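tool_call: predict_structure(chain=1)
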Amino acid sequence: MTAQHLDLLSKKEIEDLTGYQRADKQAEVLYKHNIFYVLRRDGSLAVTLYAVHNPAPYKMEPKTSRINLDAIK
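tool_result:
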């Protein structure tokens, strides 16, 4: 793994890349362009330079599913 894989974009760079300051709007733009990101604990996004230059070749699905505890008996 090279250093490029670990280079995180700054908040300003993510704003410049997406055109938005709000994390939810940034996430929409990144998702639209298949750029992988991580939602940080504080609500901001973490994006690597590698992810920007190597978008996913497939459509990523947001992880919204939860365990259905009602189904467990």
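agent: The helical segments are 3-6, 11-18, 23-32, 49-53. Proceeding to next step.
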